[in-house]
Amino acid sequence: MYMKKREIPAGVWDSCQNCGHMVYQKEVEESLHCCPECGHHRRVNARTRIQQLVDPGSFEELYADLAPTDPLKFKDRVTYKDRLKDAQRKTGEKDAVIVGKAFIRGRSVVLAVMNSEFIMASMGSVAGEKITRAIERATEDDLPLAIVTASGGARMQEGMVSLMQMAKTSAALAKFDDAGGLYIVVATDPTTAGVAASFASLGDVILAEPGAMMGFAGPRVIANTIKQELPDGFQTAEFMLKHGFVDRIVNRRDLRREIARLIDYCGK
Amino acid sequence: MRDSQVDHILPLSDNAVLEFEKPLLRIQQDIAALEVEQAQSGRDLASEIKQQQERMIKKTKRLYSHLTAWETVLVARHGERPRVTDHINNFVEDFTELHGDRTFGDDRAMITGFGRIAGHKVMVVGHNKGKDTRERIECNFGCAHPEGYRKALLKMKLAEKYKLPVVCMIDTQGAFPGIGAEERGISQAIAVNMMEMSRLRVPIVCVVIGEGGSGGALGIGVGDRVAVFEHGFYSVISAEGCAAILWKTNEQRQRAAEALRFTAKDLRKLDIIDDIIPEPIGGAHRNPIATSQFLEQYIGDTLRDLKRPRIETVLKRRQERFRNIASFFDDPSATETGGGKAARRGIRGSRATRSRIASDRSTVGVA
Q1: Residue A140 in domain
Q2: Cα dist. B34→B11, B15, B67, B159 in Å?
Q3: Which of A121, B127, B155, B259 could cross-link B112 (Cys pair, CB 3.0–4.6 Å)?
């Protein structure tokens, strides 16, 4: 007998965005927030991601006090301050990046994770500063660096202060590179615009989750500019792999093993 | 470069008058009418004409002394504003263009080549928006593809090899949004340029000569000094794009333009840029030659300053310059915005060593 949709207790079942199958929430969580039917990788917030990636209990958060300001006193239909408060209340985080030291399968790393639940992990000054500090910490402590990217791009409410975070993070990576550090990018859905065009494209090794959106310009902007339809699979991780800008597409369940293996090849 | 014509102001051309310049056009028509009358009647109207001309100058100055952010966009994008090719013609001696990225092709939206500026041998890199319809289409209106950014980097590396400073002239709406650009890795091209420019072992001067559009501008925008022309702008997103996303309508672009605070003056206040280069009365499009003179002088003076210290010092300051651009709270008590002590930092590192030529010069010459 079929149950009517509204009789399903909330939060126990839901349907996969990709294949439409009704899936049991608990089963989804056990498969690291991937669809048990089709393998579709759902977005996960930064805390969950960290839990999935690092050895239990090994995460030691850094720079947790950094909080955003409103350098432009920006206001559109709502003020940027209100947007921030709203995002902070919803997520319980101060901004869109969490940084720390951790172990992944026993290998010590500096880890930064972007949180797409916080204003689509747009990169403002706090995100840029925390990513930069993570890079500098990896340089000082001579540790491998892994950044899990997800972002809609630069945070326009912080204007040019946010755009300059692209240059700031890239310059910090130049120093890390000079010091011989290993930098692994894990690109997740969506890795776009200003973040794609800075640290997310500068990994020594670039891994990406299946199906993750990856690109610079927004698809609507491109379609409007060239006045034609975009090909299927445009701006996905698979598209980037095909065109030579991603090293490996890795299932979420294999990420720990893959990162550990890369560290064994390249780490010191 | 040709001798000073700084006190000269070109007439407005009928087909390129901006909405807010229309009162000026009326004065210009009055002057023309007086001149015709003088010629036909033989009466001496010189004093009337002079009076109108003075009115024109006064009104132009007044209009341009407080442009709105949106008007600044219109001036920066003006069809007759001097482009990189004009500046090259006006003051780069022995310009020797070097084409191609040696991998894919030659992007006409990016011009690169050797040249001499104020006696300094340099590598010139600049976005090219094009002068006429044919050229504009050829160079995608100044929106570069990955091969443009890779060409720029290749030539900068060449400059590094022979210890020539790099001069970047930024003038773009942004990198080209298209299928080919994505396929050939526009993100990676811009990212690599920023990373490599941050450690390029020669001085780099970057000037926004018109429009500085987001990542496409920053792709040749990491340098020891970053300057913007008085009526230029440099923004994280276009006013139109910002309005479409945040206000959900293009109509609000004027408000978006104000909110983004991307004019040269705002950027100087926010410590994003080092210097503002003055423009002639009525904007660069009214006197391209004088505009080029101001740019030449700025580049010459800045290169002289940057060539003095050891390159290690220059590099350290360049890295600090970008490292210190930030605005955040760093205080456990700052649980939400508004609380705690702000750790707003400007680009402090090299402040004391920075030249103030341009701002000192804004009072000179153009009266």
Answers
A1: yes
A2: 15, 22, 30, 55
A3: B155
CATH code, domain with A254: 3.90.226.10
Q: Is residue A4 assigned to a domain? A: no
**Who has greater pLDDT, A3 or B254?**
B254
Q: Is B270 on the interface with A (CB under 8 A)?
A: yes
Question: In terms of residue numbers, what domain contains A154?
Answer: 43-266
- Residue B187: closest CA among B203, B175, B173, B169: B175
Residues A103 and A18 in one domain: no
Which of B185, B194, B255 shows the shortest C-beta gap to A198?
B194
Of A166, A225, A243, the CB nearest to B194: A166
- In tens, the pLDDT along B217-235 reads 999 999 999 999 999 999 9
ipTM of the complex: 0.95
Residues A37 and A121 in one domain: no
Dump pLDDT digits (tens) for A125-171.
Answer: 999 999 999 999 999 999 999 999 999 999 999 999 999 999 999 99
What tens digit of pLDDT does each residue of A31-45 get?
Answer: 999 999 999 999 999
Domains of chain B: 3-66 (no CATH), 75-364 (3.90.226.10)
B-facing residues of A in 68-127 (CB < 8 A) are 68-72, 74-77, 81, 84-85, 88, 125-126
CB contact residues (below 8 A), chain A span 204-233, against chain B: 214-218, 221-222, 225-226, 230-231
DSSP A161-187: HHHHHHHHHHHHHHHHHHTT--EEEEE
Whether residue B148 lies within 8 A of chain A, CB to CB, comes out as no
Asked whether residue A118 is domain-assigned, the answer is: yes
Based on the domain organization, do A91 and A223 belong to the same domain? yes
> Hey, is the C-beta of B218 within 8 angstroms of any chain A C-beta?
yes
Looking at residues B175-194, what average pLDDT do you find? 97
Contacts of B320 in chain A (CB under 8 A): none
Percent of chain A with pLDDT over 90: 88
Using a cut of 0.90, tell me whether the model's pTM lies above it.
Answer: yes
Angle formed by the axes of helices B84-91 and B288-307, to 10°?
70
